[in-house]
Amino acid sequence: MKNDLGRRAAEALRAVGFAATGVLAAAGTAGAQQISGDVVRIGVLTDMSGPYADTAGKGSVEAVKMAIKDFGDTVLGKKVEVVWADHQNKADVGATHARTWFDREGVDVIVDINNSAVAVAVNNLARERGKLIINTGGASDILTNEYCAPTAIHYTYDSYALTNGAVRGMLSQGKKDWFILGVDYALGKAMAANVTEFLREGGGKLVGMTFHPLNASDFSSFLLQAQASKASVINLANGTSDTVNTIKAAYEFGITPKQTLVPNLLFINDVHALGLRYGQGMVLTTGFYWDRTEATRAWSRRFFEKMKKMPSMIHAGGYSAVTNYLKAVQATKSDDGATVARQLKKVPIEDFFAQNGKVREDGRMVHDMYLVQIKKPEESRYSWDYYKVLRTIPGDEAFRPLSKSTCKLVKAS
């Protein structure tokens, strides 16, 4: 009888042990794979049909697909998917897409968002829902100042960094009096504010300012105001097709070369559309140039094979952002927005796009920028050979220092 009792007790203990082992294993599996919906879903919110479609658009979707494929199409054994939507350069349309993705369709992170007004609306949603966005296309530096959020990262460039190098460079040449011609929405207003700040700090003078509608068809009245100001520099606080058309019109009106045009935001795709005849000699700041190193050339040629054009900095930044996002998901074993954002702020970012990269507490991804000059036609050796790199601008010099930040996430010094 005693032996029978002992045998049954031992069997019970073994059963408890097996059950405990099963519970621990299940707990370990759950802890190791905290992936919502058993899939990592990336949303590309971009301009697919408007003035910014060439510098982002389908190219942004393709760059994200390249990053996912290069990562192996899975993370933590879970499939990685990409969806996309056209924000139409309307804040309400962009916010509606983002809300649907977050609330109903299980999108874990949104990238691109190449319109500052749309980006502000999506930043607010990210804050409310604790969802991650990595802005690789918007320019306004208000995204890491008054509209910063714990789960919002501004990755590729911003209005402060774009205007910083070019304004200081022109001031050093003695060009002190400026006229700003900008686009009438968040992007143009932010760049105008940045230029005004740098002029004040550098001893320059703002003699006038005017704003045109997005995707304008006629720039004559705005350029005549700039011409009448007799400013040494006409600063273009607009982007893509608006910038290209402004430059062409200024050339036709005989404004250049008497007055110097300084574009704040000019992509290599814009230079391709503009032509070196119109663009030659202009100095600008960029976050990426395809022909800068062996690594940039290798990736850009792969992109060219798919898109038949060289990548903009938005395309390259999108690839880099998604790659580093997937690394963070892998490291944290989670696709939770706040968790992944904290991880991205812990580790350095170094790849063909970002040199000396780091994500600060305000969400700004700081990395080296480049001051470039557009080549003369006779200096270009082959297609898309458009830039001379004049200077590498260290990230801490290029972007707004934290001491000037208005982001509430930045700890008081």
The top-level CATH class of the largest domain is Alpha Beta
Rg measurement, Å: 25 Å
CATH-scheme architecture of the largest domain:
3-Layer(aba) Sandwich
Describe the strand arrangement of the main beta sheet, using strand numbers.
2-3-1-4-5-6
Q: Helix and strand succession?
A: HEHEEHEHEEHEHEHEHEHHEHHHEEEEH
Tertiary shape: globular
Distance between the first and last residues' Cα: 76 Å
* Count of individual beta strands: 15
Your description of this structure?
There is one protein chain. With 413 residues, this protein is an alpha/beta fold. The protein folds into 3 domains: 32 residues; 197 residues, Rossmann fold (3-Layer(aba) Sandwich), CATH 3.40.50; 152 residues, 3-Layer(aba) Sandwich (Rossmann fold). 45% of the residues lie in helices and 18% in strands. The chain contains 14 helices and 15 strands. The strands form 4 sheets. The protein has a 6-stranded mixed β-sheet, with helices on both faces. The longest helix is centred in the N-terminal third of the chain and has 31 residues. The chain is globular, with a radius of gyration of 25 Å. The relative contact order is 0.13.
Short overview:
This protein has 3 domains: 1-32; 37-157 and 292-367, Response regulator (Rossmann fold, 3-Layer(aba) Sandwich); 161-286 and 371-396, Response regulator (Rossmann fold), CATH 3.40.50.2300. It has helices at 2-32, 57-71, 91-103, 116-129, 159-172, 186-202, 220-229, 240-252, 268-274, 276-279, 294-307, 313-332, 337-344, 395-398; strands at 39-46, 74-75, 78-86, 109-112, 132-135, 152-154, 177-183, 205-212, 233-237, 260-263, 283-286, 358-359, 365-366, 369-374, 387-393.
